[in-house]
Amino acid sequence: MKKSVVGLGTLAAAALVLSGCGGGGFDDNAETPDNAEATDASIEVLIGSSGEAETAAVESAVAAWSEESGIPAEVIVASDLSQQLSQGFAGGSPADLFYMSADQMHSYAANGSLLPYASNLSNKDDFYPALVEAFSIDGEFYCAPKDFSTLALVINTDMWEEAGLTDADYPTNWDELATVAKKLTKDGVAGLGFGPEIERIGVFMAQAGGGFISEDGTEAIINSEENAEAFNYVKQHLEDGSFAYSSDLGAGWGGEAFGKGLAAMVIEGNWITGALSADFPDVKYEVVELPAGPAGKGTIQYTNCWGIATDADNTGGAQELVEYLTSTDQQLKFAEAFGVMPSVESASENWKELYPTMSAFIDGADYAINLPSLAGSADVIADMNAQITSLKTADVAAILESSNTTMQSVLDAQ
């Protein structure tokens, strides 16, 4: 999917970092508002949609709330959400309510453009704690998580059975993962595939007890022994061929490698199920939790929140709309419509009933971590990803040392 900056377990998903765009007369020291009264001013809702199903579901929900509340509201689907958000803030006329990533939250909060409203919501205690951390700065809960995704282990059951493996062989630790990956590797098929990126390899860092930033938020810890253990584990099995990058298998991402039968197992998010259904409907698979490492279980979560502009015409109405959109019932409707996982714990069991074969994804919420989202941290991740592409032949210590130096520079600049 934060105490501003801490270790792997309390940092938010990295994406495009905005460099202080906005302004437009916003208060640079915005404080948490009281529960503002809703007015009859119309609300503009800007979203980035995954497709027709998501668009229709959000439009339907907003229309239902609008009819019930009497407050006009319009959904606008962005062709480029980051760009349109930036342009709106820069021009002093942002949308009132919008999808927002954790790194964008940091940038807009820094210049006072983002309203820190989430602690006013009646359902604030229902959100998963790690998601609250992802959208908090210095302990202040800024914006409500709209949904989330995690990573799990996806297994091709036909290949599994052909290798003589049963349900009892599902790996629960690193040694078992290495063993089954070796058994599944043959004839150009990798036992385990994943993207050449921290967004996947980071699960091993978490399982080893590693991280990016110290608990007090002042020191980069990328060059830790725990991270070295994680990287060396991955490197070892890239070298022996039982693990492979999706790009080295001739696929654009893990889901494609899995669908084409190039990898018997992949580390991927719950979005893979839709991709397999659409593009590889004949592939049979099982989803299980990622194996634990030396420090225990670990996965990565990805999330966005509902952001409200400080300069919105109807902040009270926007907050009421967020409560409606993040309610248990409405999030379950979104889940049925376009497959997302609800951001509130009260919807967990019902979601499992809807998607019993995907329980491993939502079970991962109990120990899911986030990647860094501070301004500048995306550059660190990008640099690590560039180095990770050659991990098979690279010096692990050199990668971690150089990344640690750049992360420390990011921290010193805050």
Tell me what the structure shows.
This protein is α/β, with parallel strands linked by helices. The chain has two domains: 8-149 and 300-369, 3-Layer(aba) Sandwich (D-Maltodextrin-Binding Protein, domain 2), CATH 3.40.190.10; 150-299 and 374-412, Periplasmic binding protein-like II (D-Maltodextrin-Binding Protein, domain 2), CATH 3.40.190. 39% of the residues lie in helices and 15% in strands. The chain has helices at residues 52-69, 81-90, 102-110, 129-134, 157-162, 174-184, 198-208, 225-239, 254-259, 272-279, 315-325, 328-338, 348-354, 359-363, 377-388, 396-412, and strands at 43-47, 73-77, 97-100, 136-137, 140-141, 144-156, 190-194, 243-245, 263-269, 285-288, 299-308, 368-369. Strands 1, 2, 3, 6, 7, 8, 9, 10, 11 and 12 form a ten-stranded mixed β-sheet that branches. Strand 1, helix 1 and strand 2 (73-77) form a beta-alpha-beta unit. Helix 7 crosses helix 8. The model is unreliable at 1-32 (pLDDT under 50).
Tell me briefly what this model is.
The chain contains 16 helices and twelve strands.
